[in-house]
Amino acid sequence: TRTRVGIIGAGPAGLILAHLLARARIDSVVLERQSRHHVEHRIRAGILEHDVAELLRATGLGARMDTIGFRHDGTNLLFDGALHRIDFARLTGRHVMLYSQHEVVRDLIGARVAAGLPIVFEAECAAIEGIGTARPAIVYRHDGAEHRLDCDIVAACDGFHGAGRAALPAAAAREYDRVYPFGWLGILAEAPPSKDELIYANHPNGFALLSMRSATVSRLYIQCGMEERLEDWPDQRIWDELARRLDHPGFSLNTGPVIQKGITAMRSYVVEPMQAGRLFLAGDAAHIVPPTGAKGLNAAIADAALLAGAIVRWARGEAGALAGYGAAALDRVWKVERFSWWMTSMMHRFDTHTGFDRRMQHAELEYYTQSEAGQTALAENYVGLPFAAPE
Ligand code: FAD
Ligand code: DHB
């Protein structure tokens, strides 16, 4: 078979790219290794930047988000037992939406299937060929057989463990990497959220985050050791530690049955360049951020919007439009990397910290919660830096 744009991966990046291309009447085929059920139930991120939510609304995908999602006009930092609110609306005139990544994925897949556009599940990309030519191809396995998708452009939106990044010519690629010496243990619990907005807590025992998914489901995270396993954390230990780290005047933690539990590693990673010949990377395929600040999903969507814009201009005859994608994407990616690294550095317990390092961290927390300029810098990044989307 043949199409104009072969898209590997039905995560947020691949699906929004396919959606934006379809609106510009550019054919694409989405290939996804997992089943539809798997990707529609995979629990991941929960915060959408202002412009990401606007992009979904502007392209016909805002209805469920505006019904079952929640608008958050601010967030909270907790340290020394005192809560500090960052008022996004007042500081920036913008906000974020609390809406699960798997719901975004469900909306995008639903729209694509309803429009009768091609998306193949349980189709695993095995090789990408001919990226140095004008007719690259994706070789994939589906239903026990090998298939070939000929295209003009290959968009690798296949996440951190996908095949796309490996297809960059090794001589041209450079990786930048930082691994943090801790992880996040996350739970989903049948408990009403203990607060109407998120709380990011820096506690002597380590970081904690209070988030939510609905009026009846809480999403909570605690910093844990890299070597720790789920067996080390029975539910009661998690609740006790959350209550300790989130404690402040007037607060009480709602608890309930834990319905999901997992440990996430913390890493910053970027590969440059994000393109080679007719191969283009978007989202986690090219970069990873630690989750503090909720940027992973948003960065993936910003990349895909930029790539869609470049492809649309190229398809309309602007021959040089594709060449600028990677540099434009990386310009924003590095700023998002900086914010995620900085939030992670400010909010966690580092066992290697000296007394001086701890004082520096404390001064940062005070500065960014007390100064109007500091609060604005945090808010501006949290609600999301601007990105270009096709009109
Ligand atoms: P993905 O969502 O990873 O999508 C890539 C898709 O490609 C997948 O569906 C995969 O199955 C498919 N694929 C891979 N290889 C192939 C192949 N060879 N052939 C075909 N298909 C393939 N971010 C936050 O901001 N907050 C969070 O709380 C948060 N929690 C996370 C928890 C976990 C466990 C993980 C893994 C990530 C989390 N993230 C979080 C990050 C965020 O979810 C990602 O940044 C986001 O999913 C990136 O979207 P993407 O489309 O680039 O990649
Ligand atoms: C969530 C995850 C994050 O990493 C974050 O910074 C905020 C919220 C969440 O899963 O709700």
Topology, element by element:
Blueprint: E1 5-8, H1 12-23, E2 28-31, H2 36-40, E3 47-48, H3 50-58, H4 63-68, E4 70-72, E5 74-79, E6 82-87, H5 88-92, E7 96-98, H6 101-114, E8 119-120, E9 123-129, E10 137-142, E11 145-150, E12 153-156, E13 174-189, E14 199-203, E15 206-212, E16 218-224, H7 235-246, E17 258-272, E18 275-276, E19 279-281, E20 287-288, H8 296-315, H9 325-347, H10 355-370, H11 372-383
Parallel strand pairs: 1-2, 1-12, 2-8, 5-14, 12-19
Antiparallel strand pairs: 3-7, 4-7, 5-6, 9-10, 10-11, 13-16, 13-17, 14-15, 15-16, 17-20, 18-19
Helix pairs in contact: 1-6, 1-8, 8-9, 10-11
3,4-dihydroxybenzoic acid is lined by residues 45-47, 198, 211, 219, 291-294.
Pfam families: FAD_binding_3
EC number: 1.14.13.2
Keywords: FAD, Flavoprotein, Oxidoreductase
Could you describe the 3D structure shown?
- This protein is of the alpha+beta class and 391 residues long.
- It contains eleven helices and 20 strands.
- The protein has helices at 12-23, 36-40, 50-58, 63-68, 88-92, 101-114, 235-246, 296-315, 325-347, 355-370, 372-383, and strands spanning 5-8, 28-31, 47-48, 70-72, 74-79, 82-87, 96-98, 119-120, 123-129, 137-142, 145-150, 153-156, 174-189, 199-203, 206-212, 218-224, 258-272, 275-276, 279-281, 287-288.
- A hairpin with a 2-residue loop joins strand 10 (137-142) and strand 11 (145-150).
- Helix 10 (355-370) crosses helix 11 (372-383).
- The chain is globular, with a radius of gyration of 21 Å.
- The protein binds flavin-adenine dinucleotide and 3,4-dihydroxybenzoic acid (DHB).
- Flavin-adenine dinucleotide (FAD) binds at residues 8-14, 31-34, 39, 44-45, 101, 124-125, 157-159, 162-163, 264, 283-284, 291, 294-297, 300.
- This is p-hydroxybenzoate hydroxylase.
